[in-house]
3-oxoacyl-[acyl-carrier-protein] synthase 2
Amino acid sequence: MSKRVVVTGMGTVNPVGNSVHEYWDGLIAGKSGIDTLTHFTDEKIPSQIAGEVTGVDFSEYVDRKEVKKTDRYILLAMAAAQEALQDSKLLESAPDMERVGTIIGSGIGGIDTLETNHSNLLNKGARRVSPFLIPMMIADMASGFVSMKYGLKGPNYCVVSACASSSHSIGDGFMALRAGMMDACLVGGAEAAISRLSYAGFASMKALSTRNESPQKASSPFDRKRDGFVMGEGSGVLVIETLEHALQRGAPIYAELTGYGATGDAHHLSSPAPNGEGAVRSMNMALRTAECAPEDIDYINAHGTSTPMNDKNETAAIKTTFGDHAYDLSVSSTKSMTGHLLGASGAIELIASIQAIREGIIPPTINYEDPDEGLDLDYTPNTANKRTVRRVMSNSFGFGGHNASLIVEAFRE
């Protein structure tokens, strides 16, 4: 018999807030974390806006001497992981560390470190390449750092599936807990890809918004004026554990994780399958795993990237999956406020989904001003909406045709 899995801790640093409390307050207030880009300067790159994390002293999470030797995406993960662990009180319960895992995904990893050291190689020679290049750069190191700091000796790895990375990481942890491989696991994602190289690459694909004159309006999912996503950075980490383990140690239980779907489009490098066919299969798989009907879902935290193709195809996929109930659902894209955190987006969006259940509030899609033809669902335009929320589906889709859907619901003993 599969074990039940619950969420007992959450932590985040992202453009809207540097804690779960600050993040949630910002979301329901419709606060945009997007502004003019400051991480680098290059006027030749057409997108000059970003959702950047500010106001974090990373020496609170890593020894001050180690901060410069550690890539930013790892530091962001360390900050989120510390909040999640403190929130869950897991380490205070003296768990069997061999049965506590760490699965923290990243779509890109330490690209800023790679870019800096490649420049050193070309301009100053091989001896000026940092000996810390490889451990700073590789995408699994956020998970490794968290595991080492806290002595977590269970399964420890990273999922890399572009913008679905953290949702797949959460799904992997969920399935391993259900199967009895672990008692608890830190899951989520981290991303710090606001670099000149990654911006140049995404800009060459014409994937980024170029509405530089109005940064806070630039991310506008489902709106007719949407012209691309806005890059964000940050991390989201959750503590999930078996219900038995959580009850045994008297842990706070915020919600129950019940559904997971993962599919492949087998269609195109960057464009979704027509009408969101792969997303439909992912959502249906999550519903089957959760043993619930489409009508049981109250809210969908959409992938909602603010790109013409995603928003059109995700809306079509929701209509196919949910039928008439699609028009009774609340839908929103919190990327309208955070920007797109790539491999970390699914984790911070699941945190928002859990908060929607706990507080009975749907966070809005801000900048929704000009409805587009065929995009006619309730996208919770501009203002948070109070509603009883029992079950939420959170969607994440990534380049390469990676689809992930998670279902979380109010905990009932």
Q: What stands out?
A: The longest helix spans residues 72-88. The chain has a mean pLDDT of 97. The chain has two domains: 5-248, 259-409. The domain at 259-409 is CATH 3.40.47.10 (Peroxisomal Thiolase; Chain A, domain 1).
